[in-house]
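Running co-folding for S-adenosylmethionine.
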Amino acid sequence: MMSMTEEQYANHILGTDSDLQRASEGIRSAGMPEISIAPGFGKLLTMLVKMSGARDVLEIGALGGISGICLSRELPEGGTLTSLELKEEYAAVAHRHMEAAGLGDRVTYMIGDAKASLAQLEEEGRQFDFFFIDADKEGYPVYLDYAIRLARPGAIIAGDNTLLRGRVADPDKNGPSVVAMRAFNERMVTDERLMSTILPAYDGLTVAIRV
Ligand SMILES: C[S@@+](CC[C@H](N)C(=O)[O-])C[C@H]1O[C@@H](n2cnc3c(N)ncnc32)[C@H](O)[C@@H]1O
């Protein structure tokens, strides 16, 4: 066996499957950014959905459907994924990959700035059991505010890329994404309505339960 980093080793033994493989290849051939959730965290999302019995999932940032597949594949019969995506062409690719995985009928895409979609969902009185936040990093604190308000009791809130390749821990880095991500992480771990932890693998995943 060739020498590998810890992440490469984890990805290697976790492997992939035909649905995720097809989506990764589709993203690459469409020239879209290759910034989908890491394999180990994608699997964790699937496990958390299954463990929690979540029925209605909200995803912020669809890209090419990799996290959508991970979030949907263990939903119970009648379970739903609502996916917020800025770019119509990305949502179309994501939907194609969800359909190819046999999950196309579970997902509804809302196109445009997620903040507008979240305001609409709140106005409609929608509630969710699981939130996956993975869009523009400056938006995370606002997405968290909405997630807390739209959460059913016991709902799970997960945010990806919460270490920003180590920039959150570097006092010399103070750009808008870094400042927003520090605020998001601190709220996740200190807000009394949440019980939370940070997983410092890959680019960081912060996970909370709405208590
Ligand atoms: C990191 S990618 C999402 C990856 C995806 N969750 C996955 O793991 O398969 C971020 C996505 O958020 C979308 N996005 C960026 N800003 C947004 C906004 N303000 N509202 C909604 N979506 C946004 C981007 O177009 C991109 O598709």
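Result summary
The longest strand covers residues 151-160.
The radius of gyration is 16 Å.
Job closed.
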